[in-house]
Every structure is written in structure tokens, then in C-alpha cells.
């Protein structure tokens, strides 16, 4: 299955991507995670991307597209993938369509839109913590680790993302409305969009997503 998760910052894309990718048995490809890994390693791509990420702006399309093209050409992505954070603009979506046609004569099966309002986004982002080693996402109130600041999964340090400051969150929401929200109409017009209510407990949201995917892959576990 080839699927994309779309939704505003903090909608829960990273959280759900992990669980949905395991259920569907495809690699999860997160452009935000790839950029952050490059930032922490100090690569030229990371140095460039950081300037945009710190402001809450999008990294320019040409840079992002080259990075995703390389990743999709790796063998593990040939039979399917879950994209989290890409595409984020209509030009990126058009390039993805072309890429799939060129590399596998295929197209996207489904785009899941995680629907949540701005107040909830702000609550989620201001309490988010991420594990420095395994990238597991936590929340200080909604999904706290057992020990403050320590990841339950691998004991890694939890950190707060630089782009989760109040002013940056506000800019990310504006950028989403202007540049990414038009993707919803783009994919609806192609008949591949499914909206998912992304409020309520994480497990409930995962279950809604899996139920929406079952018609395409009937053997999905509950
Ligand atoms: P990226 O990392 O993709 O950020 P984003 O889209 O802004 O999304 P987030 O990661 O902030 O949120 P999320 O929806 O994944 O929510 P999460 O699961 O963490 O991109 C970062 C930057 O990289 C961009 O700003 C841009 O600069 C650049 N970039 C990336 N891709 C790009 C592209 N394609 N083009 C150009 N630039 C690009 O959840 C948030 C919090 O809520 C967590 O604490 C979680 O525990 C909690 N939570 C989740 N679900 C629930 C629930 N159901 N109930 C309560 N709490 C919940």
C-alpha cells in the first residue's frame, strides 16, 4: 500500500504514522525526521534546512523533492510506504505522482487527512517531547513517560523541538493553511482522500485509520 498522512502540525501524524505503518507493514518515511536527523548530524542539508525549520517555514520544494526522490528509490520503499509530512505543497504532490509513474507505474492508494482544530494543535505541540535516540513521541499530559524526561522505550533523553515555541507554532499553522491545506482539495478531486477524526485517545484514532484502510487491505489486524 502507498499512503500519505496529511494534517496540520500537531495533528498526530508522527504518532499515528508509527502505528499505521506497523499495521500495514510498510516503511514510514517522515521528511521532518529526515531533516531533523540531518540537523543533528550537522550535514550541509541539515544546516540549510534548519534556517527554514526554526522559523516554521517550509524547506524549499527542490531540496525536499530531491531528498524524497532518493529515499523512495531505496529497495524497502518499492512495494509500498507511508509518507508523513510529504507532500506538503501542490507542486510536491505533482512531483510525487510523476515519480510513482516513473519508478513503479503506480499511484497513491490513499491519503488520510487527520482532522483536528487549532486549539487542540496548540495544546499538543506545547507539551510534546521526543526521544533523542528512537524518535518516539510523548506528551507531558496526554501521553507521559513513566519517568520525567526519559523515554520508556529505550531510556533516551526527551527533548522539546525548537519549532514548538508559541510564535513558531503560529507561523506553522499559517503556512499550513496557505501551502498545505490546498492538498486536501487536490487529493479529494482524485478520489483518494479519507478524512479521519484525529481527536480523542491515540488508540481510537489509530483504530479509525485502520478501519478506513481495511477495504483496501482486508487482512489488516484490529
Ligand atoms: P514535521 O516534523 O513534518 O512537522 P509538522 O507537520 O509540523 O508536524 P509535527 O511533527 O509538528 O506534528 P505531528 O502531526 O507529527 O504530531 P505528533 O504526532 O508529533 O516538519 C517539521 C519541519 O520540517 C517543517 O516545519 C518544515 O520546515 C520541514 N519540512 C518537513 N517536511 C517538509 C516538506 N515536505 N516540505 C517542506 N518542508 C518540510 O503529535 C503532536 C503531540 O500531540 C505529541 O506530543 C503527541 O504525543 C500528541 N498527540 C498525538 N495524538 C494525540 C491524541 N490523539 N491525543 C492527545 N495527544 C496526542
Mean pLDDT: 94
Q: What's the shape?
A: globular
**Beta-strand residue fraction:** 5-15%
Low-confidence stretches: none
Strand count, sense and closure of the main sheet?
5 strands, parallel
CATH topology of the domain at 2-116 and 197-213: Rossmann fold
The CATH superfamily label of the domain at 2-116 and 197-213 reads: P-loop containing nucleotide triphosphate hydrolases
| Number of strand elements | 8
What do you see in this structure?
- The protein has 222 residues and is of the alpha/beta class.
- It has a domain at 2-116 and 197-213: P-loop containing nucleotide triphosphate hydrolases (Rossmann fold), CATH 3.40.50.300.
- The chain is 48% helix and 14% strand.
- The protein contains nine helices and eight strands.
- It has helices spanning 13-24, 31-41, 44-55, 61-72, 90-104, 118-126, 166-180, 182-189, 202-213; strands at 2-6, 28-30, 81-84, 110-115, 128-131, 137-139, 158-159, 193-197.
- A five-stranded parallel β-sheet has the order 2-3-1-4-8, sandwiched between helices.
- The protein is globular and about 45 Å long.
- The two termini are 17 Å apart.
- The structure holds BIS(adenosine)-5'-pentaphosphate (AP5).
- The site of BIS(adenosine)-5'-pentaphosphate has 36 residues, from α1, α2, α3, α6 and β6.
Descriptive tags:
Rossmann fold, 222 residues, 9 helices, globular, binds BIS(adenosine)-5'-pentaphosphate, 14% strand, alpha/beta
